[in-house]
Design a protein that fits this description.
The complex is a heterodimer of chains A (about 325) and B (about 270). With about 325 residues, chain A is mostly helical. Chain A is about 75% helix and about 0% strand. In chain A, α4 packs across α13, α6 (about 125-155) packs across α9 and α6 packs across α12 (about 280-290). The model of chain A is unreliable at about 1-5 (pLDDT under 50). By secondary structure, chain B is of the alpha/beta class. Chain B has a six-stranded mixed beta sheet with strand order 5-6-7-3-8-9, sandwiched between helices. Chain B has a three-stranded antiparallel beta sheet with strand order 2-1-4. Classes of the chains: A mainly alpha (about 325), B alpha/beta (about 270).
Chain lengths: ~325, ~270
C-alpha cells in the first residue's frame, strides 16, 4: 500500500544483485555449519577411531581402550593427531561426517535411480515417497478440517466457545503417546495402510490452520464490516467477498506450519507400524542397528522434504497473492 | 406520528419532501463505565437535495447521528425516518451510500472491481455494472484508473474511488463521515470543489460530518452545530451563500460571517471547555 512498492527496482542487473545478495549469506552460514560439524566429529569419534587404530597395530597414547574411556575427546585428539583423519571415515561413527551423510544420501537416491532401482525398498526415494503420500493426504484432511472449524468458529458464538478449548487441548496431548493408539485402534477396525498415518498428520496440521484462519477471517475491521452492512450484504456474501480474500495471507502462512506439522505426524506415525516403510521406519531401523549414517541421511531426507513442501506452498502463495494484487 | 407525515410526504411527491426526519432522538450506549448518552433530544429534518454538514468536537455525536441514519446504530428513544421508512428498511432498500473516513478499498480488487462490489451484492447485471462503473468513474474524475489497484493511487484518489463506490448504485442519499479528514489541505480543497460539482450534477441529499469549519461553510446549504456530553444540536445555520461557489468565496465577508456564527455556536456549546 505504500509508495515504496510502486518504485521497485527491476531489470537484469538488479535481479542478479538480488540473487547474489540472497545467496552469499546462505552459503556463508552453510559453510560455517559444515565446518563446525567436521570439528565436532573429532572429539565425538576419536575414541572409536583410536580403538580401531590400536587394533590395526598403530601406536596410540595412552594405550588401552579402558584407559582412554574417561578421557576428553579433545585431549585425545591432540595427543594422537595422526589418527584424527580416521574420525571422518568410520563405519558406525557416533557423529557421521557431512560427506558420509552426503554419500549415503546419494547412494540411496541418485545412484539407485541411475542403476534403475530408484524405487527399491533400500531407496530413500521410496521411503520418502511413502512418507510424502501420507503427509500430503493428512495435510489436506487437516487443512480442510482446520478451515471448516475456523469458518464455524467465526460465524457461530456457540462453536467459538465450544470448539476452541478442545482444539487447544488436543494439541497438549503428546502425539508420541497417541500415535500408536490411533494406529492400533484403526487397525483393529480394519482401517490400514496410508489412512491411519495420514490421520495423525491431520491431527497435527489442522490446529495451526484453524488458529490462523480464525485470525484471518476475523481480520477485516469494523469499518469494512459496516460498509457491507450498508449494502445489506448477507453473511455468505460477507464471507466470500471480504472475509475469505482477507484471510489469504494468513491461510498460506498457517498452511506452511501445518505442512511441517503434517510431516512430523507422518514420521511419528511410521514408528509404531512395525518399522518397514517410510522415513520414520528408516530412522527407527537405523537406531536399532546403530546405523548412524542411515539415521542422519533419513533425517536430512525428511528436512529436504519439508523444505520442498513448505517452499512449494510459498510459491503458490506468491502466485496467488500476486494475482490478487496483494503481493508485497 | 412524525414518521407518518414523512411517509405520506415521500409517497406523494418526489420534489420537495423531507428525506430524513429525526424527532427527539436519544441514544445511550451501555459501556463498562456506565451509560454514555451519545445523542439527546435531536430534532432535525433534512430535505431532498440538501447538503447538510454536521460539525462539532469529538464525542458530540455527529458520527453517531450519521450511523443512526444508516442503521449502523439504533436509537434508544425518539423516532427517525429515512425516505419515509425506518433506517433498517431504508438500509435494506439500499437508500443511501456511505463514505467512511478511510477509503477502505479492497486491496485485492482493482478500482473498477471495488466500485462493482455493491453492484455485485445488489445483483446488477454484468453490462449494467460496467455502465455504472464507467459513469461514476467519470463523475469522480478517475477515468482510466479502473484497472489500477488501490495501492497504485494516491490517498485523495483512493477517497474519490470510495465516493464513486458509494455513488455506484444510485442511492439518493450520500452519507459521508469525515471523508477528507485524513487528507492534506490542498487535496482537501480540490476534493471539496469536486464534491460540490458532483452534488450539483446529481442532486443527491448529502449528510457530511466534518471537524473543519471552512469545509462545513464552503460545502453546505445547512450547518448543524453539535456539542458533546451529551451529544446534542446547539445551532442549525442556513447558509446564505450562493450555490455557485468558487474556492475564493471563502475570503468573502459573507463566508466569514457564517464561519463566525459556527464558531460562536461551538463555543456556546462549551465545546472547548475541557
Amino acid at each position: 500500500m505504500t509508495d515504496a512498492t510502486i518504485a521497485k527496482p527491476s531489470g537484469l542487473g538488479a535481479g542478479v544483485r538480488a540473487v547474489s545478495d540472497a545467496v552469499l549469506p546462505v552459503v556463508a552460514v552453510v559453510a560455517a555449519i559444515i565446518g563446525l560439524w567436521y570439528l565436532a566429529c573429532i572429539p565425538m569419534n576419536i575414541h572409536t577411531a583410536l580403538t580401531d587404530a590400536e587394533r590395526a597395530g598403530a601406536v596410540v597414547t595412552p594405550a588401552g581402550a579402558a584407559e582412554r574411556r574417561d578421557m576428553g575427546g579433545i585431549g585425545l585428539a591432540l595427543a594422537n593427531t595422526e589418527i584424527v583423519p580416521d574420525v571422518f571415515s568410520q563405519e558406525r561413527p557416533r557423529l557421521p561426517a557431512p560427506h558420509q551423510v552426503g554419500m549415503e544420501l546419494w547412494k540411496t537416491t541418485g545412484e539407485m535411480v541411475l542403476t534403475g532401482r530408484g524405487f527399491s525398498k533400500r531407496s530413500l526415494l521410496y521411503h520418502a515417497w511413502v512418507t510424502l503420500s501420507s503427509t500430503v493426504l493428512g495435510f489436506l484432511i487437516g487443512t480442510v478440517a482446520g478451515v471448516g472449524l475456523a469458518i464455524g468458529i467465526v460465524h457461530s458464538r456457540v462453536m467459538n466457545m465450544a470448539v476452541m478449548p478442545w482444539a487447544i487441548a488436543s494439541q497438549t496431548i503428546p502425539i508420541l503417546a497417541v500415535a500408536p493408539m490411533i494406529i492400533v485402534v484403526l487397525n483393529s477396525v480394519g482401517v490400514t495402510g496410508i489412512l491411519p498415518k495420514a490421520l495423525i498428520s491431520a491431527y497435527l496440521s489442522f490446529f495451526p490452520v484453524a488458529v490462523g484462519m480464525v485470525k484471518g477471517l476475523r481480520s477485516p475491521g469494523a469499518m469494512q464490516l459496516d460498509l457491507l452492512a450498508t449494502y445489506n450484504a448477507s453473511q455468505a456474501e460477507t464471507f466470500w467477498k471480504l472475509r475469505m480474500p482477507s484471510s489469504m495471507p494468513y491461510f498460506f502462512t498457517s498452511m506452511k506450519i501445518g505442512m511441517a506439522a503434517a510431516l512430523v505426524g507422518a514420521i511419528v506415525g511410521e514408528m509404531p507400524t512395525g518399522a518397514v516403510r517410510g522415513l520414520g521406519a528408516r530412522l527407527l531401523a537405523g537406531s536399532y542397528y546403530g546405523q548412524t549414517v542411515q539415521i542422519w541421511s533419513a533425517l536430512f531426507a525428511a528436512a529436504i522434504l519439508a523444505a520442498v513442501l513448505v517452499g512449494l506452498i510459498g510459491l503458490i502463495q506468491r502466485a496467488v497473492l500476486k494475482k490478487m494484487g496483494m503481493a508485497s | 406520528m412524525e414518521s407518518d407525515i414523512a411517509a405520506n410526504g415521500a409517497a406523494q411527491v418526489v420534489s420537495e419532501s423531507s428525506v430524513i426526519v429525526a424527532d427527539s432522538l436519544d441514544l445511550t450506549f451501555q459501556t463498562n463505565d456506565g451509560p454514555v448518552q451519545a445523542l439527546r433530544d435531536v430534532n432535525l429534518t433534512i430535505n431532498r437535495g440538501d447538503f447538510v454538514s454536521f460539525i462539532g468536537p469529538s464525542g458530540c455525536g455527529k458520527t453517531t447521528f450519521l450511523r443512526v441514519v444508516a442503521a449502523l446504530e439504533h436509537p434508544t428513544g425518539g423516532t427517525i425516518s429515512v425516505n419515509g421508512m425506518s433506517p433498517d428498511e431504508a438500509r435494506r432498500a439500499r437508500a443511501y451510500g456511505y463514505v467512511f473516513q478511510a477509503a477502505g478499498l479492497y486491496p485485492w480488487r482493482t478500482i473498477a472491481k471495488n466500485i462493482k462490489l455493491p453492484l455485485e451484492i445488489m445483483g446488477y447485471s454484468k453490462e449494467s455494472q460496467e455502465e455504472h462503473v464507467a459513469r461514476v468513474l467519470k463523475l469522480v474524475d478517475l477515468e482510466g484508473f479502473g484497472e489500477k489497484f488501490p495501492w497504485q493511487l494516491s490517498g485523495g484518489m483512493q477517497q474519490r474511488a470510495s465516493i464513486a463506490r458509494a455513488l455506484a448504485f444510485d442511492a439518493d442519499i450520500l452519507l459521508m463521515d469525515e471523508p477528507f479528514g485524513a487528507l492534506d489541505e490542498i487535496v482537501r480543497d480540490h476534493l471539496n470543489e469536486q464534491l460540490l460539482a458532483l452534488w450539483e450534477r446529481t442532486g443527491k441529499t448529502i449528510g457530511f460530518v466534518t471537524h473543519s469549519i471552512p469545509e462545513a461553510v464552503y460545502l453546505s446549504t445547512r450547518i448543524v452545530v453539535m456539542s458533546p456530553r451529551p451529544g446534542r444540536i446547539t445551532d442549525v445555520i442556513e447558509s446564505t451563500l450562493p450555490l455557485e461557489r468558487p474556492l475564493d468565496i471563502r475570503d468573502t465577508p459573507e463566508f466569514l460571517a457564517i464561519a463566525h456564527r459556527v464558531r460562536e455556536g461551538l463555543r456556546a456549546g462549551h465545546a472547548y471547555d475541557d
